[in-house]
Design brief:
- By secondary structure, the chain is α/β, with parallel strands linked by helices.
- The chain folds into 2 domains: 96 residues, no CATH class; 265 residues, no CATH class.
- It contains 11 helices and 14 strands.
- It is elongated and about 105 Å long.
């Protein structure tokens, strides 16, 4: 056992006790003890023969000796009570933490993706065991060929079964799921759809300037979100394009180059940039706008939606997790190719007969 390990454990104990009731009780006892002895106590060194004695005594000039001893007794009682309470709390917390399991889902899908694993951040920030579910599709995506994209798609489609294996045998209250990703948009959305509401994760974003994983904050929502659904005459259309601009504005050119004959529905966050939507409540507003438009399109007879999405990974994942096969049209999510100024491939989530499967299928345009 190393000295560093011992000091780390002592620091953990100090951090555990300090904000707790037990820690406050111990602190009060120590302060009470130091107060009475500092005000009315004497420390005397006596030399008797060859033996030195340390003698603690009270002066009777200010406070009666019996009062001083009673206060000292209560101070020690508070310290001992705090130690016992804190000890029992620490044992209970330690046992609970040994049961806790953090499942860390990380999707890596772009060349040059961060090599700082999300699981390292979780291991520091959260108690309990950490198990990584790494979905590394970088080599497949970089090839940009249909066979390689199919292999990448297969890995993402298998994410749910891997998470189910990781949590097998654990009580649901002992499981915390985390997710973070840097990958093509269709795979981000698909992963959210696969995880669904059953495996709602703590969503993490990679902050490129600080070069570290960050959780979303809980500040109040401030976004303004607009859509043009009521201005578009759908007629007898069965398919539409939905352009959702959350982190930058999707221009008309790539949409026209890809879907020249389809109606364009827009959901827009005016003046949004990639660095502005770090608030969970803002993201919830975007999800609500998406859900509202998808439900209205379904009610108006639309059978299929082609989604062009400009959003951060956390928003894409959250949108996917709220995709409702029972009440929404079929959806396909596409990847933009800046060299061709059009969307070249995507992932389609077909609706099966029983609305029970969320398995993506590759779409080439």
């Amino acid at each position: 056992m190393s000295i560093k390990y011992v000091f780390d454990e002592i620091l953990k104990l100090i951090k555990f006790f300090r904000p707790s009731f037990a820690g406050k009780l111990i602190t009060a006892g120590v302060l009470l003890f130091l107060g009475v002895w500092g005000y009315n106590g004497n420390v005397i060194f006596e030399h008797v023969g060859d033996i030195n004695h340390l003698k603690l005594d009270f002066s009777t000039s200010e406070i009666p000796e019996i009062i001083s001893y009673l206060v000292t007794f209560f101070a020690f009682a508070m310290i001992l009570a705090g130690c016992f309470i804190g000890g029992f709390d620490w044992i209970a917390t330690h046992r609970r933490n040994t049961r806790l399991k953090n499942i860390v889902i990380e999707l890596r899908g772009l060349d040059g993706s961060v090599n700082t694993p999300l699981q390292d951040k979780i291991a520091v920030a959260y108690p309990g065991q950490v198990e990584e579910v790494l979905i590394d599709i970088r080599s497949h995506v970089s090839a940009q060929t249909k066979p390689e994209l199919e292999r990448a798609l297969e890995k993402v489609n298998n994410a749910r079964s891997r998470v189910e294996t990781a949590i097998a045998g654990k009580a649901r209250e002992d499981i915390v799921i985390h997710a973070g990703m840097i990958a093509p948009v269709p795979f981000q959305f698909l992963l959210g759809a696969i995880l669904d509401d059953e495996f709602i994760p703590n969503i993490w974003e990679y902050e490129r300037f600080r070069k570290e994983w960050q959780p979303l904050d809980n500040n109040d929502a401030t976004l303004q979100i607009v859509d043009n659904l009521d201005q578009v005459k759908l007629g007898k259309a069965s398919e539409v394009v939905l352009a959702l601009s959350a982190t930058y504005q999707i221009s008309d050119e790539p949409l026209a180059n890809t879907w020249s004959k389809l109606k364009i529905i827009r959901i827009t966050v005016p003046d949004a940039t990639p660095s502005t939507i770090w608030t969970e409540n803002d993201q919830i507003l975007i999800v609500e706008a998406f859900v509202d438009v998808m439900a209205k399109l379904h009610n108006r007879g639309i059978k299929r939606v082609h989604l062009a999405l400009a959003a951060s990974p956390s928003i894409s994942l959250r949108l996917g997790s709220h995709y409702d096969q029972r009440n929404f049209p079929e959806i396909a999510v596409y990847q933009y190719n800046p060299n061709q100024k059009r969307y070249t491939w995507g992932v389609h989530l077909p609706i099966d007969e029983h609305h029970s499967s969320k398995v993506g299928k590759l779409v080439n345009i």
